[in-house]
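Lab channel / #folding
Pinned by the channel admin:
"Please post every new chain as: sequence first, then the structure tokens as a reply. Keep commentary short and put observations after the output so the thread stays searchable."

First post following the new format, from NK:
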Amino acid sequence: MEELGVLSDSKSYFHTSSCFAKKALYYLFNAGSYVCSDLYQTKRDCFEQFLFIYIKKGKMEIHYKDYKYIANENTFVFLDCYHPHLYKTLEETSFEWIHFDGNSSRAYFDYLFQKHGCVYSLENYRDIPDFMNRILSIMETAKVDEHAISILIHRILYELEKISNQADHTLEETIKSAISFIESHYNQDITLNDIAAHVKISPYHFTRLFKKQTNYTPHQYLIDYRVNNAKGLLFSSNLSINEIASQCGFNSVSHFVTTFKSHTNFPPKKYREFLLKI
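Reply from TO:
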């Protein structure tokens, strides 16, 4: 049966793994190299295998559980197909894929997904495309070397772990830069768009990353920082409530009083009086 959107240059290969491979190795079910139009789509509630996709050219949309990703050229996708998933091409797309299972596939997926999600940029990482190509070359032969296949799958997983570690470091530096920007400009009328533009990330994506890293949204972090600075000024200065509101970036005294009270259970004036009694 022909798959909708799969063009004539596409190839697929199948393999029945040995009992030993299923007990001791990463083992293959099938693999292929596809060229697809923008009509290609696969949607499943459960398919008891894991999936690698290497996008050589084009663009795909990936849904896994409640997550949505866009995978561009030279990206890699790792999916646990035991859970609901969907992947579809958004334009003419060339990609290589393998379905596999065995060994510690689930443990590796859970570990990597928690750190990085499903989609990996392969910029500056050329080993994974080579490993995928070698797996497909083996699948073309009459006799599949199951041990070699297992080693190549494991090496791909190892490279994904390296990418996720590098991404963690990059994310940490990005969040540090955003926090530095907030703390340097908290007394100005800055917005989410301003902060996201500073670190060159879309506001939606930046908010998700910031929350994941700090447990605060950028807006929550900014307001907390403003309130904490206001606390310091209420204790250490003779500035009026109006002046403190202005110096801490609140656009009105009423907004300052309402926000301060929601954070401390005291209006600013009462908070100052409380501090002076200590």
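NK: The chain has a mean pLDDT of 92.
TO: also worth noting, The chain has two domains: 11-169, 186-278.
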